[in-house]
Each structure stands twice: as structure tokens, then as C-alpha cells.
Amino acid sequence: MQEELKAIQEEALAKVEEASDLKELQAIKVSFLGKKGSLTQVLRGMGKLSPEERPVVGEIANQVREAITNAIETKNTVLENAALEEKLQSESIDVTLPGRPVKVGGPHLLTKVIEEIEDLFIGMGYEVREGPEVETDYFNFEALNLPKDHPARDMQDSFYITNELLLRTHTSPVQARTMQEYKGEKGFKMICPGRVYRRDTDDATHSHQFTQIEGLYVDKDVKMSDLKGVLNVFAKKMFGEDRKIRLRPSFFPFTEPSVEMDISCKVCDGKGCSVCKGTGWIEILGAGMVHPNVLEMAGYDPNVYSGFAFGMGPERIAMLKYGVNDIRQFYLNDSRFLKQFHQA
Known about the structure:
Order of helices and strands: HHHHHEEHEEHEEHEEEHEHH
Mean pLDDT: 86
Strand content: 15-25%
CATH class of the largest domain: Alpha Beta
Structural class: alpha+beta
Helix content: 25-40%
Shape: elongated
Number of domains: 2
CATH superfamily of the largest domain: Bira Bifunctional Protein, Domain 2
CATH architecture of the largest domain: 2-Layer Sandwich
Number of helices: 11
Largest sheet: 7 strands, mixed
């Protein structure tokens, strides 16, 4: 048995020396020192030895086990170092190579237009207000002179969540909330930008989700001429000092009288072209004097206070100002489209 143990040691040491990777080394360890390994099988036969031989063979067996174990541990360290060195070589970085350029983004075109409009009205003394996109039927309709049976509700096909809760169809509820907040005690100027939602078929000029900016000025002795002056400043600042405006009679339940505002076509300078459909004018926004019912429901005395309101779509303004012909481009996140306006 002593000769068998020495033969196992020589074989094991030779195989350990030849091992080329950690997986192979582990297999060698199992084949010699495992539960079914060569050394273990030999030691199971020690019961057949005489009492005098057992201590001698046991000592030799321990020496063989220790020699094989030490050889495996030493080889394991060598192979681990070699694997680490190989990994470091394969993952090495040449710090002298030029870096990859990082693409720099920019504000979305709609964001740019909205911020430009905000800056313009802030400069005229308006505050910027926000409100919930999930709105109550009361603030979205009733507080704006649109009771439940009002036929004008059909003008805005809505996304209802419950009978009294819906996705807002315009940002006008923020105006109603602001008036109620002030409780009819003082005048104010405000604009309210934000997303709105209507059941509409998406195409080049329509979207079920879009943005809107509405403005409201309430105070004593506010006149239609004040509204026209503000809209004239807006048109010239957004589309150029040579733009002209005109106001056409219209209808909105929350304003009386109501108007649509057109600007002279920038493409043909009012002479008539395909953009303005030969009229020389392009519709921009709706506006009007705040309806007395709206003032009264918000706590304002319509005999003392008056006001004007206006509403515009930033998408439409951006399309006209920058020559975009499809509203869907604003929402597709196509970087080829968006990067055109980073410096606009």
C-alpha cells in the first residue's frame, strides 16, 4: 500500500504541474482528494492492515495528502495570477486615445416656445400658474359657464374617468381656481400653460393630447382695448414687428363678447398663399371679455370687476413660427427632427 500511495502522489503532482487552467485543476483535486478520489479509495483499505502497519501507512497517507494539497494550492495561485493578468491585458484602456464625443441635447421645441411665451407675459406683469390635469367637472365646465346640459360641451369631446372627474379639456380650470382663490377681493394677471386632452383622431394637425396656454386679467375697468393691446404685443414679439392682427367675432361660453385673433401671413406678407389659403391671414388664438356669470361664480362682482381671457396652442404657434407641417413630430422623439431647433 505504501508503494500505491507514492504512485498516487507522483501521478497527482505530475497532473497538477500540467494543469493549464483553474477548471482542470479543480477536476484533478476531485479525482485524487474527493470522496471517490484515488487517495480516498486506498485509505478505505487500511482496515485490512495489521495493527503495526496502520500507523506507518497512516503517516505516509497524510504526507501524500499534504503534498498533493500544497501542490494544488501553489498551482491555483499561479493560475489565478495568470488569469488576472490576462484579464487586465484584455481590458486595458489606452488613456491616450481621444474620447468619444458626447451628444449634447437641448430644450424641446415646444418647451422653447412655451418658455418664450412665459417670459413675454411675465415681462407684462403676469404670473405663471399650474393646475391638476385630472380635473373635476365643476372646474372644467360649470365654473366656466358650461352647465351639464349646455350644448357647447359637445365642442370638447372629453376623456371622463367618472361622472364628475375627467382629463381636463383646456387649462381654463386653472383660471377658475385662481379667481376662487382670490375670493373676488383683488385683481390679478396670470397665464396657465399645461397639457390638455380631448378625444380626437391624431393627424397632421390634430392630437388627442396637446398643450395650451391660457391667460386671464381681472381687475376694475378692464376693457376690450386692453385685450387688443396685449394681443398685439404678443403677435409682434412672437412673429415679428411687421405682423398685423385682426379680431373676428366668435363664440366661447366663458367670454362675452368673444373673438378669434388672426395675424397677417408671414410667408406672403398678407398677399395670399397656400399657407394662409389665399386669405392673407392665419388664425392664432381665441379670446374675449370674461363672461359676467364666470366672474360671479368665482366671487367677483361683475358690476365692479371685469376682465379678459385668451387661449392659444403652443403647437400651432411653433408650427407657424418654425415651419413644422405635422403636429405629430412634436411627440415622436425623432432626434433628427428635434436637433434642428437646438439653436433656433
